[in-house]
Amino acid sequence: MYTWGRFNIFQKGIRSRFSLFAKINLLIIILFIPILIMYTYSNNVTYDVVSKELQVSNTKQLTFLSSQIDSRINQMMDFSLILSRDPNVRAFNGLNLWQDKYDQMQTRYIIQEKMTLQTGVTDLWPTRYAVYSQQNKEVIANYTRDTGYDEAYLKKNMSGQWTYGDHSTDSKDAMQSFYWFYTDSLAQPGMLTGSNLVIEASFSHENIQNMLDTYKAGGQGDPFFYHKGNTPILNRTADKQLSGDLIRYLDTHSLEDTTQDIVELGGKNYLVSTVKSTYLDWHLVDVVPLYQILEPISLSQNLFYACMILLLVVGISASILLYRNVQYPIQKLIKGLRRVQQGDYSVRLHSNNQNEFSFLFHRFNDMSHQIQDLIENVFQEKIRAREATLKQLQAQINPHFLYNCLGYIINMAQMKDEQAVVSMAHNLSAYYRYTTRMERETSSLQEEINLLINYLDIQKLRNGRIEYHIDIPEHMLAQSVPRLMLQPMVENSVIHGIGKSYTSGEIRITGESANGFGKIYIDDDGPGLTPEQYEALNQEMLEPLQEEVGCGLWNTYQRMIHTFGNHSYLLFGPSPLGGFRTEIVWEIPSEEADKERGTTQADG
């Protein structure tokens, strides 16, 4: 008791250590969680702030570019208005001007020079102007024209708004120019009276491309000029695949004066900003790859998570090593001690590592082996003492059994029943021949069954009510079992079952083997016992031998444990026949189990 008390103290100490180890791991996990939450939160805040600032900055830049384009267009419109009030231009549309050829040439030269000077203000935004005299059917332009004055052309384009293309071609795929026509007519806008002066201002799509190229050079976007139904104006280094995908997206959405969306194209996110031009009714569109701009933040986040995963893997690896080299050996040692405490002294511990635990395992194995030897020696002595008691009791009982059998023979002889005399003498001879042979402690199950047949035939001759049935699988008959393992159980059924009833008389002996265990059931149809009596009888088999317990049953149980191990047992309970059942279960040794499987397969 003192030794096991020290073991319990040691076990509690181990549990407290492992409890502390678990608490430390839990504390590390608890510390990890706030770090992950705070980092994720701060990273998301940074991501949102950068994204919003990028959106605001992109909108401002795009609005500034749109204002530059509108400013240049406004300058062209102002110049057209000033030009229409120029005396030379008004003289060009006069009635009596062309009487002097020199003055006519001089006026044309002055007008062209003014338009040329206005065009040459900047190379980024070249402009084209033309002055139409409806009165004289003449036109003066600062660029080379394919055609002269065309009345139908003027009437078709007098909308008062900037238009894309001069409507001289039906192709919408060709890159065209923006046009604006101004007249000093006091009539309804878009109407010509026949003597109007018309100023045409236009610029090429290349002007827009120049502005887009300049804008792109200072940022990370990919801008273009867009109007639904017309060919968009791209910058000269535009990503045509990306622009085409975005244009298809814009064609399916309505655009406000200023819009900003995050669009997924090709599995990647882009910031799409649009600003509407005041004069042209086109939208200036810029697409910025968010995934590239925010990539450093994402990379930093991924590196942090990778480091956390690496730390977690290292921690798990350290825990596994700690478990394999410390915790697992200690658990094995504790389990081994528990099994020893429960009475299983055959347990042995093995270690593949040469460390302190291998030394502890070796000493533990020595201790278990010594205890097992001591227990077996004591157990053998107890078995011998019980067997001596059993033999003494049998010596006292057997003469009475023999006298009854001899009396039966005398009676049958007097009655001239020779068959009964021969049968009794034969069975009695075989019975005593087997029981008096003590040179072996074990025998085959077939020999035990033959003994039961002899015994039951003797009892059947004496008591005609007895009927027995034996059904044992053939592959079990060669198994080795302790001698007289079954006879005390059958005798118990004959004496205490059938012998105490005037109506019962059936005894059934059946067997089976499965999962490495052999089982034999001995049933009778006698009065049986109450559930409490069954429970008490089963409990007495697990306790030391007492005076009121049958020596034969207890001794058989102890000999089975000694022969087959702790997994073998006797179990008493109610029988399907209505009486008493004895269940005998033993673990089949591995070599006999292999032979039995081979016999079963051969029979199959």
UniProtKB/TrEMBL annotation:
Residues 324-376 form the HAMP domain. Its main location: membrane. Keywords: Cell membrane, Kinase, Membrane, Phosphoprotein, Transferase, Transmembrane, Transmembrane helix. GO terms for molecular function: kinase activity. It is found in: Cell membrane. It comes from the Bacteria. InterPro entries: Bact_2-comp_sensor_kinase, HAMP_dom, HATPase_C_sf, Sig_transdc_His_kin_internal. It is a multi-pass membrane protein. This is Histidine kinase.
